[in-house]
Design brief:
heterodimer, A: alpha/beta, 40% helix, B: 481 residues, Arc Repressor Mutant, subunit A, 3 domains, 10-stranded mixed sheet, 3-stranded antiparallel sheet, 15 helices, 39% helix
């Protein structure tokens, strides 16, 4: 395993930073150098601000020096760690494009709450990571600034929508990253790039500063190299925020400590395998790798049983009604009046709307706005939106019913490994079906994560999805950690 | 054929709160353009709304004052439409679950004369809900500018049932509604500042019919008198159309208060589909009994209840209460003065006449008046005790309105007091009697008017500052000895 700084975990780097064997500036420089080296091939970033990152790193080193001078250990768990930020989460003074022509020149004047909290934990906010425009897509091909490549095979997609966040981490261009997950946008790219990706329970992390795609489904979460790294980031960004009334007033546990305690307790986990997630469309190699992971859990002494989530077949349909309905309204603010792209040809207010939006939005965004506008229209609301909300309730009930018998549910993250660029671009439905295993988690508001569980014969990463109970991220992380401890997938690095 | 009008009013009232409906930036009026904004008001990418509890408190108060049923849950919906004054291009509003349902507004119709109380009746309400105000467009020759200072200000929409029958009733309804809002400290309802805005839905039907005619929505009724004139004009217009054999088109019309004419804005076919759906950014909030009880404890007496009480408790006439009551501060001022002097009618007269006249002349609001209830009470007491004559009291009032000095001080400074040295008065009276034996004889002989002969010399001796009543009493007492 390479010992390059940019391949190390937060845990490993924190020890070195604390020991003084490496400085935050040296670490940041190593990440910048690596980024410059591989970025022409990967294109994980929409932009990065080298000077700003180094200034943050210097400030971190100074904080650490001051803390040592006072004889005090550094309390900030992410001190000096470069964390990449998906370009749909606000960072004050930096571009915020959502990978859209609409916001090509927009600079956000404020920090998202998750970013504020990362800074408070000592992290360095690093770069603006590529995504499918406005987080709509599963391949990062829908970016107005060009697709991101999968570091494991540059001809293939990294997944999406947080493809930049997953690819940058896999390629050593960041130590951890933030993404957002509306229907699988963290977990699916994590699976396709062989990193850990966590979508927290809805309401666990403030959405303030996250450009809304579908407000009732969106959640910010971490990409990391290890389960315990993901736990550190989650701890830093979680908790109630007075700026987001959907963030819940629950105490944030020390996830790292929780994982340790649970693993020492030797608790025998009860895991559910939903039969609906292993049917048609599942790639045999992915299926085999997931079966092997389940076998590994059995070997640990976990109780594995089949469960049923009977409404799974309605999930994609309900999701694309709810998500598009919300997005049609959320994206109305991009009108060329106050900020963002304004058509040079527009002659009056109505014309500004028509032309600016026609020029500013890409195909997939327009498709979803039109679909969402339709399902909310007078006369269709009850048949579509209202019914989809009822399905949503049933899907959540399916999960909660299963959780009476099991602690977590284990499934494949994505039905296939990374596909070739362009392969599904012309077929939206095929692209939508890529999220078939991840969407239910968002509809039910549950925490879910993807962790590496193998590779295909062609060397493409495969992800294992573990789905937890509401606000029980500690248990979820402990279950993921137990598997991680018995495997060595992280030692494989993409050849770039 | 005779026609009757069926009118329903939609009144928008800005709720008086420190900050805006869904963010912490200040709500206000008259500031430089786009200074009362923040990332949430401007709908910058990634921003989220958070509910202002003060606004909910106030709409609950409005609902309680108007006898509405208060919903158990406060829920928010998005009303989607594009317009440059709307930063998000949707308005956060309440669609199927308004926070207040039902209720009514007590109104007073015009009396047969100004000094005669008119008939009281009630206008039923459909609902009251809360939403956020939009910004303001300023159109230039070739540019339009948007000011978002007003955007996001809490706004109540008060919808009446279609039970208003005339322009006068509509006027009376608005007047009564405004007074209740001011009493509840819910809004200042200043129409010039856009704090109260009114749209009217108007239709006509043959008198006695129970079928509703096609309604026309009249917008831009920017003052109370425009409301009255606009409705009156629209009723006449509709009757003329029907009498000429035409039919009324369902449409929205714009009323121009300057010309008194209206023009069509859009027809029914152009009506918006607002695509309402529950706002996923805002969690529904439970309104429990405890919350309602807390608000109920802050509810003031309603204006018409207060007017009835002032008339019975203090025996004040309608002409006075109709002046005092619509202004809550003035009525409070009166009650304080009445309490301090124990002479409510005298206090009411001073306030309704002299105080209001001076305030009107100085163009100052009541709160800035140097004359406090204590001043008025002091003045009433001095006059009542005979220490001040009424002409002099008027002078004292004008003086203390300027200086803020207490009446006793003004009287002392300017020597305006009634002659109250009783020994001196007694001496002057004795001297006058002694000097005019003939009139003493006349008086004792039964000619009562003979007493007037003594009064001239006494008043001269007193330099006009003797209380005539007291002079009369003293003379009679001495003559009887």
């Amino acid at each position: 395993m390479s010992q390059e700084l940019f391949t190390l975990s937060i845990g490993e780097l924190s020890a070195r930073l604390q020991a003084g064997s490496v400085s935050a500036v040296e670490l940041m420089q190593a990440v910048i150098d690596r980024t410059k080296e591989v970025e022409p091939r990967v294109h994980a970033f929409n932009s990065y601000d080298e000077a700003d990152a180094l200034a943050q790193a210097r400030a971190s080193d100074e904080r650490r020096a001051r803390a040592k001078g006072l004889g005090d250990a550094v309390k900030r768990p992410l001190e000096g760690i470069p964390v990449g930020i998906k370009d749909v989460i606000s960072v004050a003074g930096q571009p915020l494009t959502a990978s859209s022509r609409m916001l090509a020149n927009f600079v956000s004047p404020y920090d998202a709450t998750a970013v504020v909290r990362l800074r408070e934990a000592g992290a360095i906010c690093w770069g603006r990571l590529n995504l499918d425009e406005f987080a709509m897509g599963s391949s990062t091909e829908n970016s107005a600034f060009g697709p991101t490549s999968n570091p494991w095979d540059l001809e293939r997609v990294p997944g999406g929508s947080s493809g930049g966040s997953a690819a940058a981490l896999a390629a050593g261009e960041a130590i951890a990253t933030l993404g957002s997950d509306t229907g699988g946008s963290i977990r699916q790219p994590a699976a396709l790039c062989s990193v850990v990706g966590l979508k927290p329970t809805y309401g666990r992390v403030s959405r303030y500063g996250l450009i809304a795609f579908a407000s009732s489904l969106d959640q910010i979460g971490p990409f990391a190299r290890t389960v315990s790294d993901a736990a550190e980031i989650l701890k830093a960004i979680s908790g109630h925020d007075r700026r987001d009334s959907t963030s819940v007033k629950l105490e944030v546990p020390d996830y790292g400590l929780g994982i340790e305690q649970l693993s020492r307790s030797g608790r025998r986990w009860r895991l559910g395998i939903p039969k609906e997630y292993f049917g048609e469309g599942l790639d045999p190699e992915v299926g085999a790798a997931v079966e092997a992971a389940i076998a590994e859990y059995r070997k640990m002494g976990c109780e594995v049983r089949e469960v049923s989530l009977p409404h799974t077949k309605y999930a994609v349909g309900a999701y694309y009604i709810i998500a598009t309905a919300e997005c049609s309204s959320n994206l109305a603010r991009f009108d060329g009046i106050r900020y963002g792209h304004r058509s040079k040809d527009a002659t009056d207010a109505l014309d500004i709307y028509f032309k600016s939006r026609a020029e500013g939005f890409g195909q997939e965004v327009k498709r979803r706005i039109i679909l969402g506008t339709y399902v909310l229209s007078s006369g269709y609301y009850d048949a579509y939106y209202l019914r989809a909300q009822k399905v949503r309730t049933l899907i959540r009930r399916d999960f909660l019913e299963a959780y009476k018998e099991v602690d977590a549910i284990v499934t494949p993250t994505s039905p296939t490994p990374a596909f070739r660029k362009g392969e599904k671009a012309a077929n939206p439905l095929a692209m939508y079906l890529n999220d078939i295993y991840t969407i239910g988690v968002n509809l039910a508001g549950l925490p879910g994560m993807s962790l590496p569980c193998g590779f295909t014969r062609a060397g493409l990463p495969i992800g294992l999805q573990v789905i937890g109970q509401p606000f029980k991220e500690t248990e979820l992380l402990a279950i993921a950690s137990a598997y991680e401890a018995r495997t060595d997938w992280r030692s494989r690095q993409p050849r770039l | 054929m005779n026609y009757e009008a069926v009118i329903g009013l939609e009144v928008h009232v800005q709720v008086k709160t420190r900050s805006k409906m869904f963010t912490r930036v200040a709500a206000g009026y008259g500031e430089p353009p786009n200074t009362l904004t923040d990332p949430v008001v401007l709908a910058l990418p990634g921003t989220l709304p958070v509910m202002n509890k003060e606004a909910i408190d106030k709409i609950i108060k409005a609902g309680l004052l108007l006898g509405c049923e208060i919903a158990a849950v406060c829920k928010w919906d998005r009303k989607n439409y594009f317009y440059p004054d709307s930063p998000k291009n949707y308005q956060i509003s309440q669609y199927d679950q308004p926070i207040c349902k039902g209720g009514s507004v007590e109104i007073e119709l015009p009396g047969t004369a100004r000094n005669i109380m008119g008939e009281h009746t009630r206008i039923a309400l459909t609902r009251i809900h809360l939403e956020e105000d939009v910004g303001k467009l300023n159109h230039g020759d070739d540019v339009s500018l948007v000011d978002y200072n007003r955007a996001g200000t809490p706004l109540m929409e008060i919808v009446s049932e279609p039970v208003i029958r005339s322009a006068d009733e509509a006027f009376a309804y608005l007047t009564a509604l405004k007074t209740v809002m001011i009493y509840g400290d819910i809004s200042d309802c200043d129409m010039e500042k856009g704090q109260l805005r009114c749209d009217a839905n108007i239709s006509i039907r043959p008198e006695g019919s129970s079928v509703l005619g096609t309604k026309v929505e009249l917008k831009n009724l920017n003052s109370f008198s425009f409301v009255r004139d606009g409705i009156s004009h629209e009723i006449k217009r509709q009757i003329a159309v029907v009498q000429a054999g035409g039919t009324i088109a369902q449409e929205t019309r714009d009323y121009d208060g300057q010309t008194g004419a209206s023009r069509s804005l859009r027809s029914k076919e152009m009506a918006h589909d607002y695509r309402y759906f529950p706002d996923p950014d805002l969690m529904p909030v439970e309104v429990d009994e405890e919350w309602k009880a807390k608000i109920r404890a802050t509810c003031p007496e309603l204006p018409f209840d207060r007017q009835r009480r002032l008339q019975s408790q203090y025996s004040l006439p309608y002409t006075i209460t109709s002046v005092l009551v619509p202004d809550r501060e003035l009525a409070d001022y009166f009650e304080e003065a009445a309490r301090l002097c124990g002479k409510p009618q005298a206090a009411a007269n001073w306030i309704a006449n002299d105080l209001l006249r001076e305030l009107g002349a100085s163009k100052n609001p009541l709160v800035e008046s140097k004359v406090t209830p204590a001043h008025v009470a002091g003045l009433v007491k001095m006059v009542d005790a005979g220490a001040l004559l009424s002409n002099a009291a008027k002078e004292v009032f004008t003086d203390m309105f300027k200086t803020g000095e207490l009446p006793e001080a003004v009287v002392a400074r300017r020597g305006l007091g009634a002659q109250t040295n009783l020994d001196e008065l007694e001496r002057w009276c004795s001297e006058a009697i002694a000097a005019n034996a003939k009139s003493v004889a006349d008086f004792k002989g039964g000619k009562d008017s003979a007493i007037n002969a003594f009064k001239g010399p006494v008043m001269r001796a007193a330099k006009g500052k003797a209380d005539p009543k007291r002079v009369d009493e003293t003379l009679r007492r001495l003559l009887a000895q």
